[in-house]
Amino acid sequence: MELIKQLPQIFxxxxxxxxxxxxxxxxxxxxxxxxxxxxxxxxxxxxAIAAGAIPISLCSYENSSVIEAEKILPKSVCPLxxxxxxxxxxxxxxxxxxxxxxxxETTCDGKTKMYELMAEFKNVYxxxxxxxxxxxxxxxxxxxxIGLKEYLGEQFQVxxxxxxxxEAVRLCNQHRRAMKRLCEVMKLDPVPVLGQNLFKVLNxxxxxxxxxxxxxxxxxxxxxxxxxxxxxxxxKRPRLLITGCPIGGDTEKIIYAIESNGGAAVAFENCVGVKxxxxxxxxxxxxxxxxxxxxxxxxxxxxxxxxxxRIELLGRIIDExxxxxxxxxxxxxxxxxxxxxxxxxxxIDEEKRIPYLNVTTxxxxxxxxxxxxxxxxxxxxxxxxxxxxx
Length: 390
Fold this sequence. Notes:
Largest sheet: 4 strands, parallel
Oligomer: single chain
Number of helices: 17
Mean pLDDT: 94
């Protein structure tokens, strides 16, 4: 019991990781360690690590920075873009401030134009992302990864060897295995922890700078959860999957709306969840850049067309995590995710035959009351469909 009592503190430590790592990053910068910042899951962080740099996620999920960005950008732009740009242009994100290079990617028009504006005051390198998961697409992305390697090598005056890249691949694969194992504790029914606590670890570990220690610490948390599992602690709840736009910061209101109304967020298919962890880089491929391309470009983001990999992964998550309902979170102005919701809803309704809820939101707190009302009704509907289960 003593171990499980310590878990809430550990979850909170990960929740505060973004703040805690600031001073450590400052020390590393003063010691001459380069920093590479990025926003997107398609960023191949192994290349930055092989260059001797620290890869770090950049701030992008708060309404306060949206307000600042709207002084410059159109209000109709997606809040993720506005928040990212607002943090950057006001120098309110220490990770952006300390980044020697920001690596962007052409995922959507809004972010592509944002990087163009950002390049006026920051060193920005943009990778041109193919929007199709075809053989040609993989070849194009492999060339973009090689281009990033050459750019960082020149920028930091280092030789990035294939072996250094392979070492970074092995390290990042260790992280993915550990994080995936942690996510899979939510396959237990009832759940051993609430999804909001799991998400604190998922989101916080992106800001960990001690790369060699991450996997071991995550495995320790997983071991604690499993060794102290008591089914009655949380009890039976409707099991919900959250998918859609990237979630974090102010959009965590979705998770809290689910769990404060009696549900459990058992899985996240968003950018910080299972999608990021499902595939490993093939460590045996003789061409490490091809292996990186295959792993990263295979992720099922809504900007891909067709996006069969996302549907395939969602189907597996629904089955393996015994999902009772799906919440599709769409940020206002995100054309790709809102358009793909048509096919997604059909798949959930017709093939998986479980309830589906589409929620369009932004980073403001204005819709919290409405979210709670809708989520309460959605969870009650699930309970009525399976009255013997709860």
